[in-house]
Design brief:
Elements: H1 2-10, H2 15-20, H3 49-52, E1 59-64, H4 81-100, E2 103-106, H5 116-125, E3 130-137, E4 147-152, H6 158-167, H7 178-185, H8 188-212, E5 218-224, E6 236-243, H9 247-253, H10 256-277
């Protein structure tokens, strides 16, 4: 018996595998483990842990601003910001789910008031990967037009501070909360990815605005201490999709075809950001 085993070993056979392997077992080695490749740095050169670890986006929270008794801006023609952004968010949800296969959570799905702090809490409790708050703009200058996108930081201009004050009007936070708020704002990882998301989203949003608002202005990427973004554990931005206070733009925003183009622009911005991380949607 030992002579036969030695003879087989001499011919290069694996006697142990032949003796113990299950019938029909393949000798083909298993494939190497699947690993995520690090994504490229942000356009600003940041190599965040999100990119180093090759993390993906799977769950997105959409936040239609205002709601209920908080109407937001109301145009001269009667268009209410709360109604406009809810419809935009709803249509965007359908696109993200259909085209990207992403899971989308809405902070509100009807005309109800949700406190600003609860909106971020909803995103955190859902373990979301992105938070996108959707608003429409207002200005005392009736001819103001264009789009802008914000990420969380201290406001650098009077105009940005004015927008932040308006959007923060319903918060219940007090001055003694400031120290904790500052610590949260300073989270570099989230800030870097929020900046990247805001940049790509603004680029696409402005491209869409140019097609629907004559003379639309690219108001750029801005920073402001929006309460609705403070405390979010994920990259988060606030997009202003047009000026309800501009009578001409208000009329355009009432048209479904115009709103759909803005929805498509927002979708393209989110998709574009996801491509910088790797196109695949994370599976949960």
């Amino acid at each position: 018996m030992r002579e036969k085993a030695a003879a087989r070993q001499k011919k290069g056979g694996n006697t142990e595998a032949e003796a113990t392997g299950p019938p029909g077992a393949s000798n083909t080695p298993p494939p190497p483990p699947v690993t995520s490749r690090p994504a490229a740095p942000t356009s600003y050169g940041s190599r965040t842990m999100t990119r180093v670890l090759g993390l993906k986006i799977g769950r997105i929270v959409l936040d239609p601003g205002h709601g209920g008794h908080d109407t937001g801006t109301v145009g001269r023609g009667g268009l209410k910001e709360k109604d406009l952004v809810l419809e935009v968010a709803y249509e965007l949800q359908k696109l993200l789910e259909k085209r990207l296969g992403a899971e989308v959570v809405m902070t509100r799905s009807d005309d109800t008031f949700v406190p600003l702090e609860e909106r971020t809490a909803i995103a955190n409790q859902a373990h979301a990967d992105l938070f996108v708050s959707i608003h429409a703009n207002s200005s005392t200058a009736r001819t103001a037009t264009g789009v802008e996108t914000y990420y969380l930081n201290f406001a650098r201009t009077d105009e940005a501070r004015e927008v932040a004050a308006r959007e923060n009007a319903t918060t219940s936070r007090n001055v003694h909360d400031l120290e904790d708020m500052v610590k949260r704002i300073a989270a570099a990882e989230k800030s870097a990815e929020s900046r990247e998301l805001a940049s790509i989203l603004q680029q696409k949003l402005y491209g869409g605005a140019q097609r629907v608002f004559p003379g639309a202005r690219n108001r750029g990427v801005r920073t402001a201490p929006f309460v609705v973004l403070i405390g979010a554990n994920m990259p988060s931005v606030l997009a202003e999709v047009g000026f309800v206070s501009n009578p001409r733009d208000e009329k355009l925003l009432k048209k479904e075809t115009i709103r759909q183009q803005l929805v498509q622009a927002l979708y393209s911005g989110i998709e574009g950001y996801m491509k910088t991380l790797g196109r695949e949607v994370a599976q949960r």
